[in-house]
Amino acid sequence: MSLLAVEDLSLSFGGLRVLSEVSLEAAQGQILAIIGPNGAGKTSILNCIGGFYRPQHGRILFEGRDITRLSPDRRAALGLARTFQNIALYRGMTVLDNIKLGAHAHLRTGLLGGLMYWGPAQREEMALRQEVEEEIIDFLEIESIRKLPVAALAYGLQKRVELARALAMRPRVLLMDEPVAGMNAEETEDMARFILDIKEERGLTVVLIEHDMNVIMDISDYVVVVNFGQKIAEGAPDQVQAHPEVIKAYLGQKRAGA
Amino acid sequence: MRIGDYKVSYAADEAVFRSGTVRFWLGALFVGLAVFPFLAGDYLLYMANLTGIAIVAAVGLNILTGAAGQISLGHAAFVGIGAYTAALLITRLGLPFLLCLPLAGLSAAFFGVIVGAPSMRMKGLYLCIATLAAQVIFEYVFKNWDGLTGGIRGINVPPPSILGFSLNNEFRFYFVTAPVVIIVVTAARNLFRTRVGRAFIAIRDRDFSAELMGISLFRYKLYAFALSSFLAGVAGCLWVNFIKIVTPEHFPLHESIRYLAMIIVGGLGSVLGSIFGAIFMTIVPEVLKSALNLVSAVSPKAMAFLSPLQTVVFGLLIVVFLVFEPHGLAEMWRRVKNYFRLWPFEH
Fold first, then answer.
1. Domain residue spans in chain A?
2. ipTM of the complex as predicted
3. Do A97 and B201 touch (CB under 8 A)?
4. Is B25 part of any domain?
5. Cα(A110)–Cα(B337) distance, rounded to whole angstroms?
6. Which CATH superfamily is domain A4-251 in?
7. pTM as predicted
8. Is residue B21 part of a domain?
9. Residue B314: which domain range?
10. Among residues 54-83 of chain B, which lie with CB inside 8 Å of chain A?
11. Contact B14/A77, CB-based, under 8 Å?
12. Partner of B232 at 20 to 30 A CA spacing, among A47, A137, B42, B132?
């Protein structure tokens, strides 16, 4: 059984049909890439899975459980983490606090406990700090920037901090919206390596949207192609690359006789 | 001179006061606060009490507006609710002063949650107007519900006492205000070391991604409103027991704006900033007033001319601060501290 399944998803805003009957499945430990031209509805799919949009039709199953009607914060607690295309870090906080925030749903400290910072609240914070330092900051090699405010960081590093925050959510499924967009070659390579490590060392399922075809071909296990809100092809990366519909969507159609 | 700042445990790195030097100065501050009332005169003690009460209220507003990003124009009304609640509990039920402190806070928090409930649907300026409506409504109730609030005459409160020990002057009241301020400031600072405080800042910086991180926006916005108005209520209870009368005129809209000015001048989202801002907004007008008195002692005619100037100078000071230090006094303090960290060998 697949870990995450999207069945017949349809979404429209007023008269604008954004998604029509899109289905996809991601198995445990798989990297699933969603590709397609700009405006095809890729981010909308992630927004539906994350709970930011409510689809008019269709279901979203997580471990066989229907989560279509759950609020975004409940889905996060189940193990769905998300990174954003336009970095959505909290600019007023340090890198460390941003990452810690990812663990929010797994912490128990309430308002009174927080005000006193005594006993359980303090122990919880210390355990969290240790987990963040040893499992995440060390893994993503961001020790040197952890005390800096995120607003002071270069773009590539901000993307990495966003990944760190998503990992702090202890996710089962990681939804990544254009993780390498706007990065230089070296940063892209680093990020691709991290995504592969996450899959291989932690057994996470990754659903990612990306335009960088080299990255897609290198790291993804399965590719779904969408265009105008519809799934037009799917399969292993090399199959998809040769698919006539995909070539048509990306390169346009050859005129007859041209 | 410190040559480095090394930690060997996460606990040491997470501490609020991280080094021996800082803890030394903190100790010095506590000693200063303890000795102050024995050295200062009645006027200074009066100002110290007012400043302390302003700090409690400002810390509250800074949690709501500075940290959680929900602008409120009704903070003075919540201080008023705390003051009226305390006045009623004392005059009608004869409850002891110390019990009234949390009860006044809870009463204000209750109304804070009601006013904050629309924050789920409204943001920014719209929410601002909703809190403005709350300010106007509560002011109206204070003024017109004669049976409960005594109308414009207000309510007189007897001097408070703790276990038979009367707090009937500035000196004695200081020993209530100062500990309350210390407790409130410590608690607020602690809050921002845990997930609750982080959630507030996340909601301010990016509410949609905060929700996708597993933060229930509705619950945390209400937390922020409840906590902020609780502290306003506590400040109101201190205030009415210190001044010994409460009337509707004490909590007008411009008082709410004064609290906003405190946290903006002091530093939004910073507990330390609330303290600096409250001190600035309480002390500086008094300093200007004494300066004016000095001048008018020399030339009595100048009084009529200079008196309005006092307000202008105060306004100018705030503008100058905002232009040169938009992050407030707290940021300025941080820079001064950094400068002295390596002083006098900065290279």
1. 4-251
2. 0.83
3. yes
4. no
5. 33
6. P-loop containing nucleotide triphosphate hydrolases (3.40.50.300)
7. 0.87
8. no
9. 43-341
10. none
11. no
12. B42
